[in-house]
Write a structure and sequence with these properties.
Blueprint lengths: L8 E9 L3 E11 L22 E12 L2 E14 L4 E12 L5 E13 L5 E11 L4 E10 L4 E4 L3 E5 L2 E10 L6 E10 L11
Antiparallel strand pairs: 1-2, 2-3, 3-4, 4-5, 5-6, 6-7, 7-8, 8-9, 8-10, 9-11, 10-11, 11-12
């Protein structure tokens, strides 16, 4: 178990993660409560988390690969559970970047659970993704699978591109929403604008 930090502290925390990825966490620790938990205990859901090892406000988490930024997460508050290798962040915003460092999409949600071992993320509550090309995605919850760079959601999903709207369940996509798939499509509204300005 990692050393516990008490009182006011600020700095940079680094964790080792697979595939030559580096994870940098910039925090302002405002307090800590210790609570050792058995490593064999399954990873908890949000409702099962108690007594964080560290708490932070204005929390920032950045993942880089070979010196290039992959994504950055901001949160108004975060609780860190060392035994679970888990960060529970509130009011989150994540920006995703391409290989040239250009932002191509932004995710916001009420809550984010980050697995520090894999950098996988579960976003919960009023989840929205907006891409730089203007595609919007809305759902109640989704999972970011870090090693495959895929977004997955079994919840109801609404995707809007220009005037086209698609809804359904079983969503899977890349983070810029260029290529997405729905296992069960609920409704599609496709409006094609004609040269004369009329639409179907």
């Amino acid at each position: 178990m990692r050393d516990k930090v008490l009182g006011l502290w600020s700095g940079v925390l680094r964790w080792r993660v697979p595939h030559a990825l580096s994870l940098v966490v910039v925090v302002a620790i405002v307090g800590s409560q210790s609570g050792c938990q058995s490593p064999s205990t399954p990873a908890p859901g949000a409702a099962e988390l108690h007594f964080p090892d560290q708490e932070a406000r204005d929390f920032t988490l950045t993942e880089t690969s070979e010196g290039k930024k992959n994504w950055t997460l901001w949160a108004s508050y975060a609780a860190m559970y060392n035994a679970k290798n888990l960060v529970d962040a509130k009011t989150i915003q994540i920006e995703f970047f391409d290989s040239k460092g250009k932002r191509y999409s932004t995710l916001v949600a009420d809550q984010g659970l980050v697995d520090q071992r894999t950098n996988n993320l579960e976003a919960i509550g009023r989840v929205r993704i907006v891409t730089e090309t203007g595609v919007h995605m809305e759902t109640d919850s989704l999972h970011w699978i870090n090693n495959t760079q895929r977004i997955i959601s079994e919840s109801f999903v609404k995707v809007t591109r220009n005037q086209d709207v698609v809804t359904g369940y079983g969503f899977e996509s890349d983070p810029n929403l260029d290529h997405f798939h729905l296992k069960r499509q609920g409704r599609a509204e496709v409006r094609e604008t004609l040269h004369g300005g009329d639409s179907l």
